[in-house]
User: Fold these one by one.
Assistant:
Number 1:
Amino acid sequence: MLYLLFLLLFIACKGSFLKTEPDVRSSIISVLEKVTVFIENRYRDINLDAVLGFRVLQGIVTQNEKWPLERELLAQHTQVESMIKKLSSLLEKACLYDLLSEFAPILGPHFWIIPHSWNQTDPLMAYSSFDAANCFTEKMSDACFTYLLGTWKENGNSCIVTSACRNAMTKPACSNYCLSHQLLYFLFADVKGCSDLLFLRTQDYKNIFCASMMKINLEIENNGFNVSSRDLFMENIMLCGMSGFSDFYKLRWLEKILTWQMPKEGCFGEPSKELERSSGVENQKKLLRRKVYFAYV
Ligand SMILES: *[C@@H]1O[C@H](CO)[C@@H](O)[C@H](O)[C@H]1NC(C)=O
Ligand SMILES: *[C@@H]1O[C@H](CO)[C@@H](O)[C@H](O)[C@H]1NC(C)=O
């Protein structure tokens, strides 16, 4: 689903780009229509990422007033809006909201906002090397998220930054999903309006994280976009795009991503055997925790 996001980010955020690339625009829409069909068939298997991704998408489309107003574009906007309506009702049927109440605050339709100004990453700010071995666990980052969101207990306070979380979320040289979760932590704090002193340095951390995520994405590109790295590649684009770094929106990347959709199923990535077997709550949770991305979109 992170995909879907990303694709629509393109549509929504880069008005000028839109105007000059009508073919790209209609490719994106037709890809999204296939995705909708896929989700229609498989909404029971939807995961947290998918819902989250969809909410970001929805935020972007509904908050974007700069949608070009020519007639053809208006027609496309209507098309996208009706797709969103359909997806929205499908995702409600997916019933993840009960299941994942820890994340409920981020799953609401109004949680996500789009950047008001854009900048580019500075390659000099990227880590010179990554230290994948010494990062934190996903359990740890989930716990830190719940302290920020106030969902660590019923009616819990939000914006709590423990020293363990501060250390983990600012740890240098993290890579891959650890790195994207560090950025996500600061994005959550933004949206929650947290005022801990740590967040005075939010922009500095975003600059470092996204410069490093750009470095990783360029490496993934140089390695020929192997299947196992595609999900991370797109997650990086989504999160740094949301953080205001427009250099993640590269036409050549978008064109590449559009080729990854499976023509028959409409989804992206490789169907996993595990997914086929899973249906229960526990499995869903496990899938989520272990980040088995079945790349919905
Ligand atoms: C853009 O980012 C660079 C470094 O990443 C920073 O020095 C500069 O101040 C930023 N510009 C704006 C307008 O925020
Ligand atoms: C896939 O690409 C990633 C990222 O560039 C790289 O670290 C990994 O070794 C590659 N895997 C295979 C199987 O080629």
Number 2:
Amino acid sequence: MGENFVLVLLLVASLVQILVAAPVYNPRQLSLPSQLNPYPTKPRLSFRPDGTFKITVFSDLHFGENAWDVWGPQQDVNSTRLMRKVLADEKPDYVFINGDLITGENTFRENSTVYIDEIVAPLNEVKVPFSSTHGNHDNQANITHLEEILREQRDAPLSYTRVAPPGVGGEYGPGNYWVPIYAHPADFQPALIIWAFDSRGQLMLNY
Ligand SMILES: *[C@@H]1O[C@H](CO)[C@@H](O)[C@H](O)[C@H]1NC(C)=O
Ligand SMILES: *[C@@H]1O[C@H](CO)[C@@H](O)[C@H](O)[C@H]1NC(C)=O
Ligand SMILES: *[C@@H]1O[C@H](CO)[C@@H](O)[C@H](O)[C@H]1NC(C)=O
């Protein structure tokens, strides 16, 4: 009888162990409705083991100024050099790029989004997840917020920038999205949500 009791206890103990261990592979995570998992093909973003999460913000990069002068392209080279230095020093878990990414009124129709490639190059090199939001200079005669976002999505594997559903924001302001950050990679609920709202700056020009 004593032996049976010990056996039952052992069984109960292993069952408890299985139940406790199970949440590491939370089955609910696998069946998340798509609107709760907007990044099914990208890594889930989570805090570091010490519970921190460092975000670096780059603002008003204004690439593409005066392509016809020496100082314009040189300024962009200097900006990417600074980005590389900041990324190496800070080693952020996420980067947010505020508008204006590009001085759109200085760009040419045929190559206005090539500057996105220059901007994302330092981020691609260190494989840091990031996203962006756009400003009034990113909506100009030869460029729109949508064009910049599509170029970024094409050229940066770790871009978390998304386009709002059809009818929200339009070509001049589709950059409305949220990015879930989890305390632990297998958590069901995010511990932090990064929201981006597109101001549709310069929309009134109606090009
Ligand atoms: C670029 O950086 C160099 C070296 O720091 C500096 O001398 C130069 O003035 C900068 N050029 C521009 C256009 O900012
Ligand atoms: C837009 O691009 C075209 C073609 O490159 C160029 O001729 C025009 O000056 C640009 N418009 C503006 C407002 O910069
Ligand atoms: C974009 O095109 C313009 C006009 O052809 C040119 O002056 C400029 O250097 C080009 N910019 C880039 C980054 O290739």
